[in-house]
Amino acid sequence: MQLHLQTWPAIEAYLRDKRTVILPIGSTEQHGPNGLIGTDAITAAAIARGVGEATGTLVAPVISVGMAQHHLDFAGSITLKPTTLIAVVRDTVVSLPRHGITRFFFVNGHGGNIATLNAAFSEIY
Questions:
Q1: What is the C-alpha to C-alpha distance for residues 19 and 101, in angstroms, rounded to an integer?
Q2: Digit-coded pLDDT (tens) for 10-31
Q3: What angle do CA 20, 12, 4 make, to 5 degrees?
Q4: What does pTM read for this prediction?
Q5: What are residue 65's DSSP bridge partners?
Q6: pLDDT at residue 125 tops 90
Q7: Rg of the chain in Å (alpha carbons)
């Protein structure tokens, strides 16, 4: 069940029995001359969608831009500053408990996000 493809009454019905969301996060950056710029976001979203379907768990929209400053020399790469990514993750996580979601599982598709995600998790905790 993909959150962004549902109506709010469908999400409300999901929340009658479940309190979990899967949050995919990736990056928009180069993968060599033949790799897609969106590989990390596409992969994280696909894995999250598969896990969501297998477990009946709600899947949030992918956070498709991550911390990729080290890729900016390659055309098409986009990055968020670590503080911006921390704010995006924090604001996403803080929004959902208002509706009853209390369990969050992240699927990270980009190694460059790890340190920033750890910082975000520490801040949220």
A1: 4
A2: 999 999 999 999 999 999 999 9
A3: 70
A4: 0.93
A5: none
A6: no
A7: 15
- Specify whether the CB–CB gap between 26 and 110 falls below 8 A: yes
Q: What single string gives the DSSP state of each residue in the chain?
A: -BGGGS-HHHHHHHTTT--EEEEEE--B--BTTTB-TTHHHHHHHHHHHHHHHHHT-EEPPPB-----GGGTTSTT-B---HHHHHHHHHHHHHHGGGGT--EEEEEE--GGGHHHHHHHHHHH-
Place of tokens 């503080």: 83
Tokens of 92: 């996403």
φ, ψ at 86 (rounded to 5°): -60, -45
Strand 20-25's sheet: what is its strand order? Answer: 58-59, 20-25, 103-108
Sole residue written with tokens 């929209």: 61
